[in-house]
Specification:
The chain has 14 helices and 36 strands. It starts with a helix and ends in a 5-residue tail after the last strand. The structure holds alpha-D-galactopyranose.
Length: 731
Amino acid sequence: MRSVALGLMATVFSLQAFAQSITYSPEKKIWLIKTAVSSYAMGVSPEGQLQHLYWGGPLWRIEDLPAASKKNDISSFDPGQMLDNEEYPGWGGPRYYEPALKITRADGDRDLVLRYVSHQIRGDELDITLKDIRDDLEATLHYRVYEDVGIIARWSTIRNKTNQKITIESAQSAAWYMPRGDGYRLSYLSGRWAAETQLNREPIHEGMKVLESRLGHTGHNLNPWFAVDSGDALEESGRVWFGALAWSGNWRITVEQTPYQQVRVTGGFNTFDFAYPLEPGQSLETPQFYAGFTSEGFGEASQLMHKLEREYIQPLQAKARLRPVLYNSWEATEFNVSEEGQKTLADKAAKLGVELFVVDDGWFGARNTDHAGLGDWVVNPKKFPHGLNSLIEHVNKLGMDFGLWVEPEMVNPDSNLYRAHPDWVMNFTGRPRSELRNQFILNLARDDVRDYIFGVLDKLASEYKIRYFKWDMNRTFSEPGWPDVAPDQQKELWVKYVLNFYDILARLRAKHPNLEIESCSGGGGRVDLGVLRYVDEFWTSDNTEAFDRLRIQEGFSQAYAAKLMSAWVTDVPNQNGRSTSLEYRFLVAMQGALGVGANLNKWTDDDFALGTRMIALYKQIRPVVQSGQLFRLLSPRTNDTTANEYVSPDKNDAVLFGFRHSQEYNTAPPVIYLRGLNARAVYRVESIEGKLAGSTAEYSGAYLMQNGLQLVLKGDFDSTAVLIQAADKHR
Ligand code: GLA
C-alpha cells in the first residue's frame, strides 16, 4: 500500500516536491517539514510566538497551512495562551501546562516568555532560535529530519547570554502536539527487573500521565518510548504518533490532555531534583527526542523506529555487521569461572557454531560472590593462572571472538578501589550509603572517575584481544551527593554522570574501532536511543524464560530493532520453574540476536545435535531477522498463538515464527495471514519439522497474504519456524 501510494504521489507532485525536506515561506513565516510518510509544520505569529501548526500525513503545499496567530481568551480562567500550542513554551505569563523551559534568575525573577529571533536551514537540519522578551536568554530548537523513515529528532540548546546567573529547573527537548481532538490512546512500556518492556495501551483523558525514571539510569520500570494513536489503530492501520527519548539518565515524558481537547507530549530531562546552574555565557543541551507519524498502525511505527536505529543511530561499525551468535556461561557457572572450565565450554560452544565467546562476571579481583571485588579490574590469578591470554588464544583458535563482562561504574565496599577512594562514591557527607547488591555507585560525574574508568577499559582493550564488552550496571542511584563541588552545582550530577558515561563509550570506540559493546543493566535497565549511539546491542532482560520472553520481546519490538535484542537460550526449568523444549527456547531466541547461555556440560548428544542445527538455521535466516521488516501477526497478550514474521528488504526471503501456548478442545491455531510479501511472486514454504498443514510447498505471495497459512501446533508450548523463499531462487 505504502509504496504504491508513495509512487503515485511522487509522480503527481514531481520529484521536486520531495527533494527538500525542510521548506520555509517568508510571507507566511511557516516551516514545512516533509518526510516519506508524514509532514510537520510550525509558524511564527505576528507577536513572534513559535506555534505548532501540523503533524500528520504528508502535505506538499505550504500555502494550505494557516499562519500562526494568537488565540483569544475564552475567559479570565481560560487564557488564550492555553490554546496557542507553542512549539517550545517557557514558563511565564498565564501558562499552566507542562513547560519546555523553566528558569530562576539570580535575582529571583522566574518569568520566561520566548519569542522567535532567527532561523537557519542546513539541508535536513533546521535551527530556530527563540529569546526571552526582555533578557538575552536563548533557546535554540534543533530539528533533524530523517526523511525516509518519517522521523524528526528535536532537541534544544539553552544559552545564558545575560550577565547574571540563572538556574534551569526544567529543560525539555521538545513538546509534540497531536491534532486537537478526543479519544486518543497512549501505548507505553513498563515493567521491573526480569519483567521489562510490557506493553500497555490505555485511553488518554484530561490530566497528565508521567512516564519517567528517577533512578539515575534509564530504568526497568518505564522505557522512554511512547505511542499515541487515534484510538482505533491496529498493527496495520490507524494513525500513530510515536517517539523515543535518547537519554540514559533521569528522563521524563509527560502526556497531557488540556481542557481544550489538546493532547501534548513533552519530554527531556526529568524535572525531579533538577537544578542546573548556568553562569553568564554557559549553555545546556538537552537530549534528542525522536518522533514520527504513520497512518499505517503500530506495525509501521515500529518498523520506522527499527530502520532509524539500524541506519542512523547505531555506530557505523555496528551498522555494517550482523550480530554474531554468542555464548555466555553466566547462568551456567555464575561466579565459578576458571581458565579450564571456560576452555571446556569454549570447545563445546565452537562445535555448536558459536561465533563470540563471552566470559561474564567473576574473572577479576576477589570476585567469588557478589560481595567483593567490584572495582578491581585485574585478572584473578587463581582462576586464570596464565592471565586471560591463554583462554583468548584458545577461543580465537576455535574460530570465535572473545568478549568480557565489565561493570565499570560500580564498587563493592570490600574492594581495593573503595579502600583507596571512598570519596569516589556518590554520597551525602555523614549520611548512610545504601548498598544494593552489596555495591556502591561511583560518581561518574567527576572527571577523575571518568578518566579512571576509561583508563581501566582502554587498558583491557589494549592488552587483550577483546572484541566485545558486556557493560553492565547493576543498581540504581541512591544518595546522589557530590560533596566536592559547590552546593548549587551538586544536582548537575544527574546530567554530568550520563555525559561522562557517553564520553567513555565514545573514546573507547574511537580508540578501538573493532570493539563492540553491549548495553546491559541487570537486564534491560539501560535500553534507550542515547546509549545506542555507542553500542551494538542491548541485553533485553535477565529473564530468559522463553514464554515470558515472548511478551518482553513483543514490548521491546515496539520501540527497538530485533538486531539490538540480545536473546539467549538457557536451561530449564528457569525463572518460573517452567520447562519448554530446547527447540521452543531456540525459536524464541532466534527472533533477535541469538545467544546461548546454557550449561553445555549438561547437554546431551541430542541437545548438541539440535543446537547445531538451530544455530546453522539461524545463520541462514539471520540477515532477514536482523535487517528485515518485522510484522507482529499474533500477539502473546491476546492469543494462545504468537506469530512474528520477518521479511527481507527485497521481499525474496521471509521467516515466520509460530508459538502455541496451550491448545484447548483440540482446536487448530488461528490462520496466520502473512504480510510484506510480493503478491505476484511465488514462494517456496517450508516448516522446520513439518508443522505446516497442506500439501503444496509453493504458494503465491497473494495467497499467503490473503488466504494465510495454517500451522500445526499442538499441546502446550509447541513451536515452529517457517522459511518462505522466492521460488525462483531454487530453480
Ligand atoms: C547482571 C546481568 C547478568 C549477569 C550478572 C553478573 O545481572 O544482567 O546477565 O551478567 O549481572 O553479575
